[in-house]
Amino acid sequence: MIQVSMTVNGIQESHAVSPRTLLVNYLRDHCGLTGSNIGCDTTQCGCCTIHMDGRAVKSCTMLAVQAEGADIITIEGLGRPGALHPLQAAFRKHHALQCGYCTSGMIMQGVDIIRRGRAGSEAQIRHELEGNICRCTGYQGIVDAISEVAQEAPESCAGPK
After folding, report:
1. Does domain 2-76 match CATH 3.40.50.1100?
2. Which one is the CATH code of 86-155: 1.10.10.10, 3.40.50.700, 2.60.40.10, 1.10.150.120?
3. CA–CA distance, 81 with 45 (Å, rounded to integer)
4. DSSP of 48-109, one letter per residue?
5. Does the pLDDT at position 66 exceed 80?
């Protein structure tokens, strides 16, 4: 077992884990944060997307030990009931979810797209979303939500570049 410590949604977390523990499992099993889903274990679907040190990463193919000392933000740290992040509110407004399985990863990727200034057009947003798969919505609502926030509240996605 190895002791792994990181800041998760502003809270210092430290847990003893097997060296082979995936970051997504660390977050779900040791931190109790189940918003990041496990869809493929191969970085194909993006359901596990989180922010690590200000960048979107897929937590299903990272080991927890690789995140030692990192600052992690999960979907649970982005907004909360009654005070949704603008992108969460836009997803609701544009019906950008159906089953919800991919939603946390899509929102986390969407925040990163806006933060990096990569939401200039529908085609650019779709290109930036290529590593995140939704099997239900057809993507139009997702693209519309990201586009709206990029135009109306880009500062809500600010962070390190």
Report:
1. no
2. 1.10.150.120
3. 26
4. TEEEETTEEEEGGGSBGGGGTT-EEE-HHHH-BTTB--HHHHHHHHTT--SS-TTHHHHHHH
5. yes
Average pLDDT, the chain: 95
Over 70: is that where the pLDDT of 161 sits? no
Three-state secondary structure string covering 16-41: EECCCCEHHHHHHHHCCCCCCCCCCC
- pLDDT value of position 16: 98
Residue pLDDT, tens place only, 82-129: 899 999 999 999 999 999 999 999 999 999 999 999 999 999 999 999
| Whether the domain at 2-76 and the domain at 86-155 fall into the same CATH topology | no
Taking phi over 0 as left and psi of -120 to 50 as alpha, with beta for the rest, 16 belongs to beta
Q: For the sheet with 49-52, list strands across it.
A: 11-17, 2-8, 71-73, 49-52, 55-58
Domain ranges (residues) in the chain: 2-76, 86-155
